[in-house]
């Protein structure tokens, strides 16, 4: 049995090694390292896969969020509402652009932003909402889009953890995660569901004018070389990463299926454990299981983590500290107790190994060791 990893990129590479090595070699021979044909092809293929009009690649997921906010022309002092239970990048770019991050609590079952809390947080300064599709399933986008329409707000979907998830609207129409709001932002960090072998990111939009602004901002604010119409940044995906992503995109549906299979195995094993709550499935979204996250009940999760570590089973806590209690974001407006659901989750969640290469033997071992700990 291979050693158990949180994310096993090594075994995944072994399965696609010939294709990857061949693709990388041809990029090296071609030498179009930046903005080469691989980047263009990848963007087109991802557009088709997601059924979205524009995919614009950039350097990483954090840049994608920043470029989205710049493209929407958000101004210092504008308020942007996002979830208190997320990765720091979401709030970081809001603060970096001198916008005001307004945090709200999440749903206790799906861990995604609570639309009721969003609507309550709206003021005359609110300009945008950033739902994060946390751990692999979509936030309640029907409710969020209704609120945005009613209050004339932009919606930027942080899709870094949910590429490939499908959302079924009340109307019955199906959309890809990241292609519902005005702009979607995603990351191709190696451990993400569609990951490259370095940094990468992309923006999605169905709006032609926004797409043009996004392309310009990611490329120093220029449409014609050396004519800079707006202030931009330098944020690009390189051709080697695009070549890798093209190969992995063709396998994304299979990878998602493998993650779901592992999740079902865990679900089945832990369904009757009173000390563990298995992840809930959102009503209108498929789950792509970026993480498999349990909520513990009456046990010390760090002791569980230590116990598993002695059996060479890794586990992680995503995320131990809510945004409003991080030093960098500790705002006078917020204090401990303001977001009780987020705070409870931060105290009780634990994520188990989740990736595309988990074998039944590995899953069986993880499950029996978790159960052995619970029986101690
Ligand atoms: C990974 C991640 C990001 C940032 O992506 P990078 O490519 O690492 O910059 C943003 N938001 C969420 C929710 C993420 O998980």
Explained architecture:
The protein has helices at residues 9-30, 37-50, 61-71, 89-96, 115-121, 141-151, 208-218, 239-250, 252-270, 301-310, 340-348, 360-374; strands at 54-58, 79-83, 100-104, 126-130, 154-158, 166-168, 174-176, 183-187, 201-205, 222-224, 227-228, 276-277, 292-296, 349-352. The protein has 376 residues and is an alpha/beta fold. The chain has 2 domains: 9-250, Type I PLP-dependent aspartate aminotransferase-like (Major domain) (Aspartate Aminotransferase, domain 2), CATH 3.40.640.10; 252-374, Aspartate Aminotransferase, domain 1 (Alpha-Beta Complex), CATH 3.90.1150. The strands form 4 sheets. Strands 1-9-8-5-4-2-3 form a 7-stranded mixed beta sheet, with helices on both faces. Helix 1 (9-30) packs across helix 8, helix 3 crosses helix 4 and helix 3 (61-71) packs across helix 7. The radius of gyration is 21 Å and the shape is globular. The chain starts with 8 loop residues before the first helix and ends with a helix.
Briefly, what is this?
40% of the residues lie in helices and 15% in strands.
List the helices and strands and how they pair.
Blueprint: H1 9-30, H2 37-50, E1 54-58, H3 61-71, E2 79-83, H4 89-96, E3 100-104, H5 115-121, E4 126-130, H6 141-151, E5 154-158, E6 166-168, E7 174-176, E8 183-187, E9 201-205, H7 208-218, E10 222-224, E11 227-228, H8 239-250, H9 252-270, E12 276-277, E13 292-296, H10 301-310, H11 340-348, E14 349-352, H12 360-374
Parallel strand pairs: 2-3, 2-4, 4-5, 5-8
Antiparallel strand pairs: 1-9, 6-7, 8-9, 10-11, 12-13, 13-14
Helix pairs in contact: 1-8, 2-8, 3-4, 3-7, 9-12
Bound molecules: pyridoxal-5'-phosphate (PLP).
The site of pyridoxal-5'-phosphate has 15 residues, from helix 3 and helix 4.
């Amino acid at each position: 049995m291979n050693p158990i990893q949180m994310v096993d990129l090594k075994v995944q590479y072994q399965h696609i090694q010939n294709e990857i090595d061949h693709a990388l070699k041809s990029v090296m021979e071609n030498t179009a390292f930046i903005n080469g044909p691989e980047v263009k092809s990848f963007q087109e293929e991802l557009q088709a896969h997601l059924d979205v009009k524009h995919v614009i690649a950039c350097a990483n997921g954090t840049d994608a969020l920043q470029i989205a906010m710049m493209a929407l022309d958000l101004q210092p002092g504008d308020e942007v509402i996002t979830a208190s239970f997320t990765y720091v990048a979401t709030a970081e770019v809001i603060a970096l652009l001198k916008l005001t991050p307004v945090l709200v609590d999440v749903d206790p079952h799906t861990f995604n932003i609570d639309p009721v809390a969003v609507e309550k947080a709206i003021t005359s300064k609110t300009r945008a909402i950033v739902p994060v599709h946390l751990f692999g399933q979509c936030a309640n986008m029907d409710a969020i889009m209704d609120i945005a329409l009613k209050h004339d707000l932009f919606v930027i979907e942080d899709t870094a953890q949910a590429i490939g998830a499908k959302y079924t609207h009340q109307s019955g129409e199906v959309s890809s995660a990241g292609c519902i709001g005005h702009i979607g932002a995603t990351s191709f960090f190696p451990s993400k569901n569609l990951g490259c072998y370095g940094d990468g990111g992309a923006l999605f939009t169905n709006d032609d004018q926004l797409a043009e602004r996004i392309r310009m901002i990611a490329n120093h604010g220029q449409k014609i070389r050396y004519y800079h119409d707006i202030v931009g940044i330098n944020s690009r995906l390189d051709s080697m990463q695009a070549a890798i992503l093209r190969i992995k995109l063709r396998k994304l549906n299979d990878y998602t299926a493998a993650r779901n299979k592992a999740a079902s195995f865990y679900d089945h094993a832990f369904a009757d454990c009173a000390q563990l709550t298995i992840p809930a499935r959102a009503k209108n979204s498929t789950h792509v299981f970026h993480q498999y996250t349990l909520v513990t009940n009456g046990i010390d999760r760090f002791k569980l983590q230590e116990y598993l570590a002695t059996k060479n089973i890794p586990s992680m806590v995503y995320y131990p500290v809510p945004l409003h209690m991080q030093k960098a974001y500790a705002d006078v407006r917020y204090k401990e107790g303001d977001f009780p659901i987020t705070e409870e989750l931060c105290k009780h969640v634990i994520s188990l190994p989740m990736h595309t290469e988990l074998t039944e033997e590995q899953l069986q071992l993880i499950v029996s060791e978790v159960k052995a700990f619970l029986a101690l």
